[in-house]
Amino acid sequence: MSASPLIARTVPALRRAVDNLRKRKATIALVPTMGALHDGHVSLVRLAKRRASRVVVSIFVNPTQFAPTEDFGAYPRTWKADIAKLAAEDVDIVWHPGVEAMYPEGFATRIVPEGPALAGLEDRFRPHFFGGVATVVGKLFTQCRPDFAIFGEKDFQQLRVVTQMARDLDLGVKVLGSRTVRERDGLAMSSRNVYLSPEERQTATVLYRAMKESAGRIRAGDSIAPAMAGGAEMIKAAGFALDYYEVRHAETLAPVTSRKDGPLRILVAAKLGTTRLIDNIAV
């Protein structure tokens, strides 16, 4: 049976644990999470283990990236199951701070990202989101001081924002993206999938099917506009309320008009019942 990871709940405890690893010339990879771990998170941990000799996983449901109308209080929290999964993967340290450790009384400094954070995708519907993400991830990077940080590609705009921030602020962290892990029917794994009713869970696969159809048409030479319009209609016909369904440049997230504009990515966000899902695929 694998040993349980060391659990740090304060910054001094975390720093001591990380310093002990550094004294042994360890390279360190950080996997930031909000808990409610699934196989997608496990894939991030396994990539981290391939890239570094020691792995730190953070579990922190970050209140600053939730709007008052969003699901901070209801966000799934599965601490015992999470620790069991991380122990099975031989994770070295779990960084599990409380809100008071991350945002102590008098906290007054925030990171306000631009560039990919203002691409007109998630930021159009959740204008608070990337400021909260950038601030908490910036703190995680300075607290854990990792060589690598692993993020899933499912949150593609987030990956681009964090990569830009680490580069712009010279944080000394190499940010790596890991491929989206999907259920057998194509639905991207997400902690929020537990909110779906059985009927909604079946319907949710339409997102992936629509993206695949649009991507196939674009690769076959169709113009972007009709290829994307067809996918959007599929999604809406299934009962989703569509926030966006767009193809963008895969590096900059800038709008594109043809396949010649560079590597492309289709990104979607849509609500089914009360559950908002996001996903993306390469074209």
TrEMBL record:
Residue positions of the active site: H41 (proton donor)
Molecular function per GO: pantoate-beta-alanine ligase activity
SUPFAM superfamilies for this protein: Nucleotidylyl transferase
Catalytic activity reported: (R)-pantoate + beta-alanine + ATP = (R)-pantothenate + AMP + diphosphate + H(+)
Enzyme Commission identifier(s): 6.3.2.1
Primary location group: cytoplasm
One Pfam short name: Pantoate_ligase
Pathway: Cofactor biosynthesis; (R)-pantothenate biosynthesis; (R)-pantothenate from (R)-pantoate and beta-alanine: step 1/1
Functional summary from the UniProt entry: Catalyzes the condensation of pantoate with beta-alanine in an ATP-dependent reaction via a pantoyl-adenylate intermediate.
Family: Belongs to the pantothenate synthetase family.
Protein name: Pantothenate synthetase
Protein source organism: Bradyrhizobium diversitatis
Taxonomic lineage from the root: Bacteria, Pseudomonadati, Pseudomonadota, Alphaproteobacteria, Hyphomicrobiales
